Amino acid sequence: MLSKGIHIMALFFCILCLMNLGCAQTNIRLSDERDYEEYKRGFDQKFTAHFPVKISASSQSCAMFSDKNEKKNDFILMLCENGISQNEINHVLDKNKDKVVAEYKASDSCLLIVNRFETKETLDNPDLRVKIDSSLIHRECYQKKYPVPNFVNYGGSLHDSFMIYVLESEKINSWERKFGMGPAPQMPDPWKNGFSRGIAISKEKKTVIYWTVIW
């Protein structure tokens, strides 16, 4: 299991990544590759099949984030790579284009966001009450949408130049036996339990984010 210190450091680097700040090249090669493998091993291969085998050689900086919180219906894994070459971005798009089930602009006003009401404060302090707006749980525009991660609450809003690509998403009757999670109170029917995995890409910011989320 990763130490608490590594977990906090990974979260810090993820915040930098999503805010489009950099981390030094040496952060990738020495420890992050090993941490990355350890993070991936914490999830079934089904949920990480789209993640790269290794961190991209063309990335100028990288960040990782992993968390498992069954009480909040929040299992998540992210790899964020900054400074990716346009050739590498095009390669990632070409490799996954036949697997995409949905794509959304980050600026879409009606994204079906997993645990949308969580904030950094509520995630860091489980005793804090989450303020839920029920009018944002059940919306007509969600009916044909697939869930995407709460990028806002994991480091900052994605820049409008990002496209979010869902590669696989599935409704699950219950995660009680497998993960000890009950129905997610922040999700609409029939998405009370499920998983979603995919990538988010900004050519403008030269950034690729691989993600998987289980709730």
Topology, pairings included?
Elements: H1 4-18, H2 26-41, H3 45-48, E1 61-69, E2 74-82, H4 86-96, E3 102-105, H5 120-124, E4 163-171, H6 176-179, E5 194-202, E6 207-214
Distance between the termini: 21 Å
Provide the structure class.
alpha+beta
Helix content: 25-40%
The biggest beta sheet is recorded as: 6 strands, antiparallel
Question: Quick one: overall form?
Answer: globular
The number of helical runs is 6
Give the number of DSSP strands.
6
Strand order of the biggest β-sheet:
1-2-6-5-4-3
Beta-strand content: 15-25%
What is the residue-mean pLDDT, rounded to a whole number?
A: 85
**In sequence order, what are the helices and strands, one letter per element?**
HHHEEHEHEHEE
What is the radius of gyration computed over CA atoms, rounded to a whole number of angstroms? 16 Å
Uncertain runs with pLDDT below 50, 5 residues or more? 1-30
Question: Quick recap of the structure?
Answer:
The chain is α+β, with helices and mostly antiparallel strands and 215 residues long. 26% of the residues lie in helices and 22% in strands.
Describe what this molecule looks like in 3D:
The protein is an alpha+beta fold and 215 residues long. A 6-stranded antiparallel beta sheet has the order 1-2-6-5-4-3. The longest helix is centred in the first third of the chain and has 16 residues. The two termini are 21 Å apart. 36% of the residues are buried.
